[in-house]
Every structure is written in structure tokens, then in C-alpha cells.
Amino acid sequence: MGLVNLCNIFGNDKLVISEFDFSPVNYTQHVPNLDAEYVFELNSLNDLLLYLVHPFKDCLYISGPSGCGKTSLVLQVAARLNWPVEQITLSNKSESLELIGHSSLKNGELIYEYGPLTRAMMYGEILILNEIDLMSPGDLTVLNDVLEGKDLTIVANQGEIIKPHPNFRVVATANSKGNGDTSGFYNGVRLLNQAFLDRFRFMEMSYPKSNVEKAMILSMFPSIDEALCVKLLKFAHDLRQVIEVGFENGVRQLSAPFSTRSLIKIAGIMSLDTDLDIHKIIKMCFALRLPAVEYEYVMRLCNDIFGHEGGKSTVKPE
User: Fold this and answer.
1) Alpha carbon distance 267, 86 (integer Å)
2) How confident is the model at residue 313 (pLDDT cuts 50, 70, 90)?
3) What pLDDT was estimated at residue 170?
4) What is the pLDDT of residue 318?
5) Which residues have CB under 8 Å from 126's CB, separation 6+?
6) 20 to 30 A Cα–Cα from 45, which one of 4, 35, 36, 231?
């Protein structure tokens, strides 16, 4: 690409970085698919572009609630820049070898297969480490030197040395900030090592503002009635307010967050030509996952905003 005009690419003249001297590598099979209906939130877009253009040997740690679009943001920026991406979702059983690589037997021959971290370093990709706060802090500290821009030495492959490509970037996503889960929503979240976290720049995301979520819904599902869309956004706002006020008072009012992902699921089914009403759709996509008391509260709120469900009971079925 050479000198890239970011304002033109993202259709916004309010970006903190307007140009990027960028030449993508010829590794197009890992470039994410572009979603033309994706709507960028300016602050998050600015924070991510600032890191990608000027990493200063840092990595980027994006924290935020489930389903708020952390990974999607990175993928859609990469898609527009034709920047290949490696991504892996970590767990409490993940080990550093899954990132670096391992030896395997193929056709009677022992060969070394590179992991996503090694490939991203070699080919100049963005490495996305999803759910990084689920992985063991001990396994993560093995990556400390690599994450600050140093070479990777693969002892298991005869001491091979991998030098980081200039386009190599690391973006981690998590529901916590590395200090454990204070919400009670995310079972298995760990406390991360502070020396490891010191390699990162931090960025916090939340659910998009109502006008952004509205633009997303109407762009993805143009058949949806705008007035119904506004009611759905009020429903989302009121549920999130209940959760936020509960946190402030030290009481968890709902057992699950109402994410942008849940909102899009509901909107998607609403856009279909079916006989399902909004009450049934909200039950399918969110309410039925909740305990009975919370389910009843959510369905009462649904009745208040969308009208009653034909006089039917909102008591959760056994």
C-alpha cells in the first residue's frame, strides 16, 4: 500500500492518526473477511489505530464485557488494511507450546509445526490472544521477551531464532483487566502476572452507545421497523442500568450481561418473516438463561416496553 490515508479508508476525518506508511505482506489467506455493515465507534477505533501505527514495542490489552465487540473491532480494522491475522482463544488448559509450536509426526517424518505466535512474527501478522485472562500466568510469562519485541528462540526446533517482522503486533482481549473478575460473570478468570501486564498498553471497551448500536442494527437488518429498533435499544439500556447500579451497590442484580451480541441476535431473528413475537425472541436469545426470579424481571421489563404478550404468563417454565 505504501502511504495509507486512514481517514479515507475508515470514512472519518476525526482520526487521531490520519496516515500510515504500511506495506502489508503477501499472506492474504489470513486477512479477515470485510463486513461492509460494520459500524466503528470513534474512540475505540482511534485507540486501536494509535497502537497499530505506533506500537513502540508494546502489545495492546483490550478489556471489556462479553460480546461488546473487542475481537470484531480488530478484525474489521485488519480487513480494511489488508493485514493478515492469527487468532487463538485461550483457556485454563492452554500452554505456551500452543502459541509457539510443536513437533509432530507426518508421513513417518518428524517435523516442527509453527504455532500462531511464531507465524505472526514471521509473516508480519496481528496476533489476537482471546480470553488471555483464562490462561495460566506461568505459561504466559514465557512470552515476556517476545512481547517486548525481542527474538523468539525455539529450543525444540534446534534453537531456531525467529526475528519479529516490522508488521508483527499482539492484541490481547479479556473480560477483566488482569486483576481477576469483580463482576461474577466470568468463571475461571485469573490474576495475571504484573511483569507480564507491564508489556501492554491498555484499552477499555464497553457496549457501544445507543446511536452506534442503532446504526449497526439498521445497517445489518434494514427490514426492521425503526420504532421497534428504538424500543429494543431502550430494553438493552434499562437492563444494563440495572446491572450497573447493582455493581455500584455491591449487589449482582442479573446473572448475565446483556451484550451487543445478544442485541444483534434478537434483532436478527426480529428481521425474519416469522410469526414469532418479540417476547418469544427475547426468551430464546437471553431470558431463558437466567434464574426464575431474574427471568420474571426481564419479561416484566419486556412487557413494559413492548406491550404484554397476549395476556400470557411470563413465569419461567420449569
Assistant:
1) 30
2) very low
3) 97
4) 53
5) 52, 74, 78, 83, 84, 85, 86, 120, 169, 170, 171
6) 231
